[in-house]
Input
Amino acid sequence: MPETSQTNLKDSYMNEQLKHLNSALQQHPELKYVLTFREWQTDFLRFYQSQTNYNISKDSSSLAATLYKGKKSCSFTVDHPDNPKIEAALKTALDMIDAMPEDPDFVDIEDDLTLARPRQIVNNIEALGLNEKTRILRELAGRAAKYGFELYGTFICNYQSWQMLNSNGLDKTSTLSPIYLEVKAVHKDSQVTVLETFGGDDFSYFKEASFSDNLLTKIALAQNPVVDVAPGEYEVILAPRCVAEFAQYLSSGMRAASVDSHNSFFEGKLNQQLFPTFFSITDDPTDPQMIRRDYGDQGHIYRALKLIEDGQFRAFMCGQYYHLKLGLPKNGNTGACLKIKAGNAKLSDMITSVKKGLYISSLHYMNFINARETSLTGLTRDGTFLIEDGKITKVVNNLRFTERICRIFENLIELEDTAHTIPFSDNYGEFSVSSARAPHARVQGFNISSSTRTI
Amino acid sequence: MKQKIKSIIDKLTAPDISFADVRITSTDYESIFFMNANLRSYGNSKGSPAIGIRVLIDGCFGFAGSKDLSAASIERLIAKARSNAIHGALFQKEKLTFPALPASTGEYVHQPEIDPFAMPKAEKLEYLQRLATSIKPTGKIVHSYAAAQFERQEKYYANSEGSYNHMIVTNSLPMMMVVASDGKQTQSRTWPGHMSAGRAGFELFYQQNFEENTETIIKEATDLLVADVITEEKADIIIGAGHLALQLHESVGHATEADRIFGQEISYAGKTFVKPAMLGRFKYGSDILNIYSDSTDPKGLGYSPMDDEGVPARRVDIIKDGILVDQQSSRHIAHKLGLAPSSNMKASFADDYPLVRMTNFCIAPGKGSLEELIASTERGYFLDYTKTWSIDDNRNNFQFTTEIGYKIRDGKIVGIVKEPTYFGITPEFWNACDAICGEEEWAYHSTFHCGKGEPGQVMRLSHGVAPARFKNINVSVKM
Output
């Protein structure tokens, strides 16, 4: 079914408070406005030492508004809104807005009225109850315990929706119900850790047996002796989680806002060949094996956007404000659904081809040193392994790297022939879950700058 | 509200509930952000409500939180918290337990000198606009911002042991930054660095001398474009208080949160190299190093008459004369370790689950001024204003980059270096500390943004520090 263009507000599903504020603002034709009503719930099981740490249910609702009068603006948020609170907040904003300094760069609010194709959204909080979650965890814990490993992690279901209206006629709703299962198996004595995750909005993609088998395979590797390695450049196999996370950091420079703040590696590099021809990144919100998105942050339709195509930089992610300020094409993409195209190598062959190198499972605490240069530092985590003569032979203490992400992708040798879904939890602000898809990558000259001397 | 929270506690006196507590918060928030001298965003929320109910049943905690404080919602949350505890106990090997505490009461109302929520909005905006205009992009300066966040929170706490706490505090976070570019590279300078928050109102802008430092950060950001980098492998470094606060935060503060010892944070924030057997014997730092957790000092953001588990405020030595002697703990973990609970369990908002958090986490002052410390340094660097921070899963290997380094030769500052980066191993680094400045340099440096837990919480907390010197530190990072 094609996307359609919307012309009328749909009162039938509009939240009462949203309707109330929208009605009040229609008395002020001098204003432009954006209104967003959000509801959010989570069921959150956190476990450690193969037992419950805590079990949380949380919910919230809020109504956010931004009013514009010419180039002046004023925003407010009302949590758990009711009409008296909304009226008080609106009165304060109306009293203030004339006194606000102008933003000369502001031109207009979002005007893309395209509606996404309707999707059936299952409320996974209801579909995946605590009994089932604890059953799955007990089964996994039982298998891991045979090898001296205990489980740590989280099993989360969210259900979140928003409705956004604006005075340009935009009226859109969006619902997500992501699932996030992160299981770290930690050896009781050595503390060697391995990680297995599932994420998505369709739990039918969760294959319990293969999840469990994958975890056990990693546990088997984790029983090798632990060694340290010296700083230096290594050939590495980056697990899909690492490839996805480096791509996420790289994509921060593909945002129009970073161009505006002179912080973008990609400024002035449109259509330049920056990476090997087999490297492509798309921001794709439509893949059913990922956590899908219908709209960007400002309500623009969210479509697949090629960011890196055959190694060439193709597009900045740009919303209305920076489109009108910088003249970049508007697309509303946010980088929440990055897909790194699979290559044509078998993982087993990739490992076999490494004479001496490292397998890196996961990354930790990365931070840019200079975002414009893509230089950053970070650490390995949850399973770093030594590869010798084409075989994983030992566990390696966690390592620090100091690198340029552009150099990591310039130094790609090959990519695995399969991409894997990797969930990420966004732990700041309202808890949310996103996902990316990526294959394993073989990279030369990866710069290890020091050892942590610990697992 | 006092009546309401106590009536909720009354509903939680069931035979199967061995402990229960309830938090209620109401939060006002205001954010002002000028970018390139223009008001990019202004936002506020008033009286944002939150409630959290926690019950301990069959040795397992269950929790439910919401922004809906209606009677129907409270009934729903009680049922949900109970259900979560009962279901959680299905996946449990060890029953969670801790000794009872006597009932206690707390009351505190903080009054800022200039209440940011009561002062005229025009006055506030005019000040920030003037500040933003004074750092407006021109010449090599290509980007700038001046920003402020203000928060007032009223909090009620009650538990099934009869403890009750009520407090109202106002916190502020001012910040400004300039970015310089020569077309090839960018360099930035902030003022007063990334730990600029305080338990204060708008007076924080005046106390932190924002207007007096606009020209300094413009000049330094511009000068950094042509500055050298550090070329030595190792050097003596003096760390300014603003950045030392973060060094302390990452490599001692988080490392001595006892929930990490048992892996309760492995899935997100990580664990710690600290083990229970180290208490009382591990040489964490040099003999001059004394570090304490102090929730009794109302000048810091971490002050509270009692924590979110009903433990009265305490000052606890964590490192005494260089030796690790205690931990920041919850009641459950303190019991496991044979310690007294340290009053460090905090939830950012009432609908958040309480976690072991830093409160006012401080290095005791030593002797002398910063000027004297620099004068006594033959060759080294004075580093301040955090740019990049990173530390490993065990809080053992860290690497920091600051915005600027001041080169010291023969006791004098003789130039600057850009992006000075140092790294080390936590105990080796703190054992290399040979001087800590005195009380005249000691102050709180505070943040709104300490992330921990899942669902994530950002905690407001403070670090009391004075500049300190560290000998023979790795300052060469090959890339």
